[in-house]
Design brief:
By secondary structure, the chain is mostly helical. 69% of the residues lie in helices and 1% in strands.
């Protein structure tokens, strides 16, 4: 003890002050931990003499309240004791940073547990507690450094002079904070928290009937076939074999979405210097018309997210300085991989892919020339064809001839039962198929079933295999013979279905299914907290479905896409990108005019995401223009100028004839 006292007496001032900070920080942290644990148990379990706590049936709410109380204790203790020599007047910046640091700390604490339990399958109490200990240690270190360097620094220079590397590191952090260089990392934290929250609510992923078919294919319980994209089932199989977790697909899906939104948020921040707009771009992932399918493992969701990722890669490429040839070709390959997967996972994605591919090429090379167009197109075709061949070789899917549902629908809804019989005889159909088609036409008319005759009207007890090669050939011949003769009825039928898709989209919320294989460790467990989270998400989405229904209807997003496509000029540098995003959405929606089997919101999910992102890009252009004009007239304060990154104060450097941030030609 005497030696320790002597050392502290002769130790440098910076070491004594740093030791005091560490000790005070530890005491405050321990007190906050005790407060959080005690308040949670009191709210949930009550006192020993009571029958339960006030929030016994809502443990998640109790946990949130206990965490907020502990955060209040931590803020008071650290501000007025640990860092009492630095505190000034309380301001919004300090509180915002404090809350942000604690949210990131919560994510850092939970991340090792999630990785250990959900991805690595280490579900033992020892594994969970070891992972939580690692997360707690990392979060504690993060909080200490962040409090010291970012949060409690209002009075100016740090009186605790720490020489050497610690001093340089602290100074560099403060300089980076002043220049706004730390904000992209803050966005990383927000994106990670958002992705984790969504993963918890949807765990282990919501599964539609289509998803369950592909899950059983991925587990090897049934052979793969091409009714649903074998590329998705094969990817799921690889993830399950690698991690042992069915939930890995939903986690990957969420990661692609939030990583794309983070990249777009950073690009918005660098162009505008607006933290609010960058957070709004991240908040797209929590918008009701987007989050409703975030955890639903569905081919339409996969297609939408990889298209968004390709757009994010394109906008990143747009910001590259001149040169960087290898980087540009690498980004082309990354973007093409996303586009190829979109085509493989959704058979009708090709119309939506073409404008995004054009956007990617023009972002990489403002004036690509014929040779680069040919090479880039060749890369897209080669990667898509090669990936398709590889998937077919590995999965060896059974042919299903699912496309025959479309002519089947047209035949039984456009023709009368008598006309169906005559057409079937003329096409050489056998009596069983003829009777089954006529019966399906009569059933659809009687029950007023507008589509999906294969599932709802066709009687398999009459002709049990409607999609056999022989029957499909007959139906295709019937379609080519009869539809030109009844083109008016055909057009009317298809327009009615398309109008229903635009104005009566169903399935705005997919709350999953519990029909998982019983032996899977990731089967849904009906815990009260899990049900509470799901109920909260359901009320959130369905509340918007009731109050703002157009967000979930195709006509609104088709109109928004047409506006993006047809307007000749938009403020800011993104005119070309906005028009191509609109064209991608328009082509995708119109592709359902001759093929739509039913009315479903998932068919307009990509246009909804593209339209939302486009609206924020338009808003960012307006903000950048306003700030540039304010800077030109001397209205921008020094503090505001310090928050705007350097990239937001200069015109584009990619050599393209675009507008500068002031809205004038560069």
């Amino acid at each position: 003890m005497m030696r320790l006292t002597a050392w502290s007496r002769h130790a440098p001032a910076w070491a004594r002050n740093l030791g005091r900070e560490v000790a005070a920080f530890g005491v405050v942290g321990a007190l906050a931990f005790v407060v959080e644990t005690a308040s949670f148990n009191l709210l949930v379990f009550g006192t020993p003499s009571s029958d339960g706590g006030a929030l016994g049936s809502m443990p998640v709410v109790a946990s949130v309240l206990a965490t907020l109380l502990a955060m209040a204790v931590s803020w008071i203790g650290n501000r007025y004791w640990t860092y009492r020599d630095r505190s000034g007047a309380v301001d919004r910046r300090e509180l915002t940073l404090f809350v942000g640091v604690n949210l990131v700390g919560m994510a850092v604490t939970a991340l090792p547990v999630y990785v250990s339990h959900e991805l690595l399958g280490l579900g033992s109490p020892l594994g969970d507690n070891a992972a939580r200990l690692v997360g707690w240690a990392a979060a504690t270190l993060f909080r200490f450094v962040a409090y010291r360097s970012l949060v409690f620094t209002r009075s100016g220079e740090d009186p605790t002079h720490v020489p050497g590397s610690i001093e340089r590191w602290t100074a560099s952090l403060r300089d980076a904070r002043r220049r706004g260089a730390l904000w992209p990392w803050a966005l990383v934290a927000f994106a990670a928290v958002g992705a984790y929250a969504v993963s918890v609510v949807f765990h282990p992923g919501y599964f539609s009937a289509d998803s369950l078919v592909q899950l059983r294919e991925a587990l090897g319980e049934t052979p793969m076939h091409d009714w649903h994209p074998p590329a998705m089932a094969l990817l799921w199989k690889i993830l399950i074999d690698s991690t042992g977790a069915v939930s890995a697909m939903a986690a990957l899906q969420a990661a692609v979405l939030w990583a794309s939104l983070w990249l777009l948020a950073v690009l918005v921040w660098k162009r505008t210097g607006s933290r609010g707009l960058s957070l709004a771009m991240l908040a797209v992932g929590l918008a009701p018309h987007v989050v409703t399918f975030t955890g639903v493992v569905w081919k339409d969701v996969h297609m939408a997210y990889v298209l968004l990722a390709a757009c994010a890669v394109a906008l990143l490429a747009r910001e590259l300085p001149s040169g960087r040839t290898k980087t540009r070709w690498a980004l082309l390959v990354v973007g093409v991989l996303f586009l190829a997967y979109a085509v493989l996972v959704r058979k009708n994605a090709f119309p939506a892919v073409i404008p995004v591919f054009v956007l990617l090429v023009l972002a990489l090379w403002p004036a690509p020339g014929r040779r680069r167009w040919l090479v880039a197109t060749g890369v897209l075709v080669a990667v898509t064809a090669g990936a398709n061949a590889a998937v077919n070789a590995v999965a060896d899917p059974l042919p299903s001839r699912q496309y025959a549902q479309i002519p089947l629908d047209d035949l039984v809804h456009v023709l009368t039962p008598a006309q169906v019989r005559t057409a079937a005889d003329r096409a050489g159909a056998d009596p069983a198929l003829r009777d089954a088609l006529a019966s399906a036409a009569a059933t659809c008319r009687t029950k007023k079933i507008p589509s999906d005759a294969y599932f709802h009207c066709y009687r398999r007890d009459i002709a049990p295999d409607p999609l056999s090669p022989r029957n499909v050939d007959v139906m295709l011949e019937m379609w080519t013979q009869q539809m030109p003769k009844h083109w008016q009825s055909y057009a009317e039928y298809r327009l009615q279905l398309f109008a229903k898709l635009l104005f009566q989209s169903n399935y705005p919320f997919q709350d999953g299914t519990r029909a998982l294989p019983a032996d899977q460790p990731d089967a849904i467990v009906d815990t009260p907290s899990n049900e509470l989270l799901k109920s909260g998400l359901r009320y959130y989405v369905l509340g918007f479905v009731r109050d703002v229904p157009f967000l979930f209807q195709g006509w609104f997003w088709l109109a928004a896409s047409l506006l993006l496509t047809l307007r000749r000029r938009w403020i800011g540098p993104y005119t070309r990108e906005l028009r191509l995003l609109g064209a991608s959405s328009v082509l995708y929606v119109l592709a359902y005019l001759p093929t739509s089997p039913e009315s479903n919101y998932r068919y307009v999910y990509w246009p909804a995401i593209a339209g939302t992102v486009a609206a924020l890009l338009i808003a960012s252009a307006h903000v950048a223009r306003r700030r540039a004009k304010a800077a030109e007239t001397g209205e921008t304060s020094t503090a505001d100028e310090a928050q705007v990154p350097d990239e937001a104060q200069v015109p584009d450097s990619d050599g393209r004839p675009t507008e500068s941030l002031s809205g004038q030609p560069a």
